[in-house]
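Check this.
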Amino acid sequence: MFEYHGWVTIAATATGDDDAALLERLVERVHRSLQNATLLDLVDLRWSEGLPMLHLGGLDKHGGAITPQLLETFARVGELAPGSYGLLHIWDDQHPEHDNAFQVYRMARGQLTEQKDEHLSPTAPTVLDTYEL
């Protein structure tokens, strides 16, 4: 099974003082880019307390087809809005190296890096009793 959950707070800059008109334009660009994310289950872009936020989530039997689109979608937000920040958690039990661990992608200042997950990994025994390799 392939499972993913992610969120991004969209920002033009890291100052926390974005021009409203610029932020509106960036969110519209992000919105247009999300139309290519046809394989993803949950793609929710909305404003909350004056800040734009994107949520991604879903499950798939085989994540191989979804993985490139998911990572491209997540990274594209950072390219379009370089002050953005958030996290993306992926668990692919068919991944040859990470089948018993979540992969975590951190976006900070629009840049994506892979991080070690210390909260839910290893999945067995942390969240599952046993896990068949």
Summary: The domain at 2-126 is CATH 3.30.70 (Alpha-Beta Plaits). The chain has a mean pLDDT of 92.
